[in-house]
Design brief:
By secondary structure, the chain is of the alpha+beta class. The strands form two sheets. Strands 7-6-5-4-8 form a five-stranded antiparallel β-sheet. A three-stranded mixed β-sheet has the order 1-2-3. It is about 30% helix and about 35% strand. The protein contains four helices and eight strands.
Length: about 170
Amino acid sequence: MAQSDLTRVIEPACQKLAQQFGFELVDVELAREGASRYLRIYIDKPDGITLSNCETYHRAVAPLVERVDYDFLEVCSPGLDRPLKKQKDFDKHAGEMVEIHLFRPVERRKQFEGELVGLVDGEIVIRDGETELRFAQKDVSLCKPLVIITEEDIAMDEEMSDDEKNDSEGR
């Protein structure tokens, strides 16, 4: 199946199913890795996607994608640093720090970081200090939120893990 068929036929079916479950369809891709072809479907929801959500959606979507020539079907969360692709992604993350990777260097650099202003007239606009930088979306290979993990985040995670252990042991 051609990429255009994937976009024209499969993606709308996946979108409809995602809506029925209360999920957001983030992306559908058909990727070759080695000798295998992976059909990857990324879903999300406001409070985060669980393994159980992925499993439920996987079982429901499998019959809808039978026509696609793939070896493995993966349904997964796009993750915290999910790539920004659509206008709504850029609108949602405006004001946050992002990382941009370019196909070709600009001023001998292919990677930039800054505060996302937004997607404006086909250009991704970021602010780096006092400087505003603009990149044509077609020249950007990847734009994703910058995930910064602090010592406080790590300590909070360790505390949560201890609480979960105590709960499961009946303490």
